[in-house]
Amino acid sequence: MESHRASAHGSPDRSTSTAIARSSTEVVDLSSDTQPSTDQALQEAEGMSVLHGQASQPAMVSEHRPYQNLMKTSIIIEYGDGFEEHHKVPLEQLTKYSPRLRDLFASAMQLKESYQQARMLRQMVKRLLPRAISFERLNNRYIATAVPLVVQCHTQYPMLQYQQIFKDKVEKLVDFQFKRKDAFRQPESHAQARKDNCSLSDVRARLQYLSGVAIQEILNELHNSMWRVKEKETRSLRDDSKKAAAHDKIILYGYDAVAVGSLVSWIVNRRLHYETVDELFQLYELADTLGFEDLANTTLNKLSYDVTEAINFAQAHGIALLDVLDSTNSTPGKYADKVQKDMQSLLLTVFKHVFVLKKHSGPLRALLVNAVVDSQDLKLYDYLQPEVDVDLAHEINRAFFLRGNQQARSDCFRSRSHESLFIDDSTPDDGPQAGTGLVLYQSHSAH
């Protein structure tokens, strides 16, 4: 499709012929001085304006591609303050490791096609606006090209959620022009239009009476509406992952270049890259958010292993969890050893993410809950209480209860093992006799 560009002085550049798509190979030259009759021009436009088998729509070439070709698309991952930073990653690599992203982009294909068709329609309308077409060229051939575009907006705007809005908009604009005597092609057209009594919804019939100037004014208003839709949809990308996917984007809140870079590095090289526990935790959260199950499990296992090692280290060296978490409760220089410092940094970070930021409710949270219960330190529980929500408090209380029951069962087992030492050897082999339980109790009491 050739595109029209105005010269630097505002007049059309004759060297680049202004053209509107007739089909993939045919164009309508708006600079031609030879004009067909009105009926011929409209019939010609109707014949060339076919989309999806409907003659009422302007010619558009859909950019929709099969799913296999879609996988070759480069996806822009936007992040950072103001989302000014980005990475480009082939969609095929993203969807290879994330079933969630594969489903998301597959579900967005139809929406993406509607965005593409809306953009093409907007571009075609733009080529017929005053900045592109001078007043002298608003002839029958211009009208023949413009009318199907107006009808397209009225009958089947590409984006379903805006179809009724544009239908009402077109009828309102056409009705406004239809009531102006100077908007008709010829003076007698006004009287003829009244005689034909075209209804408000019969946009196509009404447009046949209007002049090129009137139709251009309609297109100008429609183009403004299209831009408002575009701006609204662009703003909504940050709150709608499906719309972002339809624009070949993934928009991430709260992640920095380190986290996204680590994700991209893992996708490309399958290597886990991080320097601090915070970075590893962010990578886990990002992988979990985007559905990279393998990466999420790898990072979670690494975190769980490191936390278990740190807790065991603290217990082995007589370091209370409260001392680790509460810096005001620690003796200066207590963690001078690098290993102890690393242990403290790890546990502080993980407790912050799980207990304070409430960013994890899975096995890592269960691991920390068990660590709190195992410590049997009520001061630690009191220290954590301001950060503990109702659900977490229930988890801790339930763990205390289960641990208490397990202890009671263990005590009972040890008690029964102890009592068995006092069983009378004279007890017949064919089973206990009446009063055996009392004998055991008496024997235990005597002991």
Name the beta content range: under 5%
- Tally of DSSP β-strands: 5
Radius of gyration: 38 Å
Q: Low-confidence parts, pLDDT < 50 over ≥5 residues? A: 1-65, 411-447
Q: Number of helix segments?
A: 20
Mean pLDDT: 75
Q: What is the molecular shape?
A: elongated
Structural class from helices and strands? mainly alpha
Taking the sheet with the most strands, its summary is: 3 strands, mixed
Strand order of the largest sheet: 4-3-5
Q: What can you tell me about this protein's structure?
A:
The chain contains 20 helices and five strands. By secondary structure, it is mainly α. Among the domains are: 19-64 and 113-237, no CATH class; 277-403, no CATH class. A hairpin with a 5-residue loop joins strand 3 (74-79) and strand 4. It is elongated. It starts with 18 loop residues before the first strand and ends with a helix. Residues 14-25 have a biased composition (Low complexity). Residues 31-41 have a biased composition (Polar residues).
